[in-house]
Amino acid sequence: MTKKVVVTRQIKEEHLKQLKEKFEVFMWDSAGDPMPKEKFLEEMEDADAALTMLSEKVDAEMFGTAKNLKVVSNLAVGFDNIDLDAAAENGVTITNTPEVLTETTAELAFTLMLTSARRIIEANRELERGDWTGWSPYHMAGTDVYGKTVGIFGMGAIGAAFARRLKGFDCRVIYHNRSESKYAADLDAELVSFDELLEQSDFVLCAAPLTDETKYKFDKEAFNKMQPHAHFINIGRGAHVVEADLKEAVESGEIAAAALDVFDGEPISKDHPFIGMDNMTLLPHIGSASVATRDNMVQLCVDNITRVLEGEQPLTEVK
Ligand code: DGY
């Protein structure tokens, strides 16, 4: 019997075609709107594979419904939307998309850091409001990244790609991981405790995976330990941060600014408490969003699904 693949968001014809040549495919025909949960569960009932996004909850309920399921291929390096224990109990292989998105995501992290340091959003808003009255010595004066101490929470592949870029800015790089990172030696980056990272950094980047250990790690206590001129940048997951504590830290001047690509509960609405704050740079989760990288991510998902359904080892399995 032809195997069935569920694709939960619109993908390009060139990728879809590869799946259709071998399998029956149900694709949710919207690029923007996620597949409603009921429809997802209904389509998964007889599915052998799924190409999912981080917006899908791949949970015990789904695994209970999808009796034929062999592989879930998640279009992200993160997989906090997937219940890995339930996957293992049901014998389902999980794959993600590491490596292909590393440089693109590091570039976005760097963009956020520079944008925050040089008050780009605030300056642009002023100009667009028609409030620019002319040049003056300290008008919109920001801070330099050059020569500063940058602390990376989560020195994995993306953290390391970010650190490599810092070399050109003559920065001191410190990082916090559970243990020494395999990337650190080449980068001249120093492993420090979480408190040292907070206390010494001029810029703190969160690039860690979301786990029970890292969830809500950036709370009131953490922001208290940061320097008043420090900037906090998050490209990990929104749930690394207690958002109310971050708002208070930025408002009270405990830290200078924050630049965020991710939020605890996405998408956020225009009523979100961060909206409109001058020292907040906010982006709608576009870390890996270059066309070439998204093409590579989708292709990797297609390859992983095809390999598992044809009895081969996937290329990038989440262990
Ligand atoms: C990931 O890969 O986990 C990103 O957050 C998606 O862009």
Automatic annotation (TrEMBL):
Major enzyme class = oxidoreductase
Q: Name one Pfam family in it.
A: 2-Hacid_dh
Catalyses: (R)-lactate + NAD(+) = pyruvate + NADH + H(+)
Is the Ribonucleoprotein keyword given for this protein?
no
- Tell me the ranges covered by the D-isomer specific 2-hydroxyacid dehydrogenase catalytic domain, including all copies: 5-318
PROSITE patterns, alphabetized: D_2_HYDROXYACID_DH_1
Where would you find the membrane-spanning parts of this chain? none
Where's the D-isomer specific 2-hydroxyacid dehydrogenase NAD-binding domain? Answer: 110-287
Record-level GO cellular component terms: cytosol
Provide the alphabetized UniProt keywords. Answer: Oxidoreductase
Superkingdom, natural source: Bacteria
Q: What is its EC number?
A: 1.1.1.28
Instruction: Output one GO MF annotation.
Output: hydroxypyruvate reductase [NAD(P)H] activity
Query: Which family is this protein grouped under?
Result: Belongs to the D-isomer specific 2-hydroxyacid dehydrogenase family.
Output this protein's name. D-lactate dehydrogenase
Identify the species of origin.
Answer: Salinicoccus kekensis
